[in-house]
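Technical annex, item 7. During the second reporting period the consortium partners agreed on a shared format for inverse folding records so that results from different sites could be compared directly. Each record opens with the tokenized structure and is followed by the designed sequence. A conforming record, contributed by the partner at site C, is shown below for reference.
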């Protein structure tokens, strides 16, 4: 009788874990956010030439992902767990314009070639649930 009750308990735990194995990409999405970027530019003698900044709209990955767990006879705990994180598939590079530029004395540069600065940023693209072990790049 005791052996029978233990078998039922293991079966109930397995059924509960089996239901939680689905990976949910719907909770992970690419969102837009505003960030302030500041970039300093130096001359050949490493003196500050100008500082430029601007509010830039960039994408970010945000959300949640379900992890997978299943019974395992190989592991010491008796369970094998796969963790999933909301991350980008890759980073895409794009140019942005910083439109508020100031010289080394803090005077705003207007009407010159130096009044704006173009820089390149890398931002997340195609956010989705990715296995946490695969995050190292």
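Designed sequence (site C submission):
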């Amino acid at each position: 009788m005791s052996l029978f009750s233990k078998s039922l308990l293991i079966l109930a735990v397995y059924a509960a874990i089996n239901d939680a194995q689905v990976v949910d990409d719907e909770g992970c999405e690419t969102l837009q956010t505003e960030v302030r970027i500041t970039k300093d530019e130096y001359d050949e003698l490493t003196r500050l030439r100008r500082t430029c900044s601007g509010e830039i709209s960039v994408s970010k990955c945000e959300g949640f992902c379900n992890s997978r767990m299943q019974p395992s006879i190989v592991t010491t705990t008796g369970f094998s767990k796969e963790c999933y994180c909301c991350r980008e598939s890759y980073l895409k590079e794009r140019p942005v314009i910083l439109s508020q530029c100031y010289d080394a004395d803090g005077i705003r540069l207007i009407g010159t070639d130096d009044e704006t600065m173009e820089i390149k940023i890398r931002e997340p693209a195609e956010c989705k649930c990715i296995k946490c072990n695969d995050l190292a790049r």
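Residues 86 and 129 are 5 Å apart (CA to CA). The domain at 25-131 is CATH 2.10.90 (Cystine Knot Cytokines, subunit B). All partners now use this format for quarterly exchanges.
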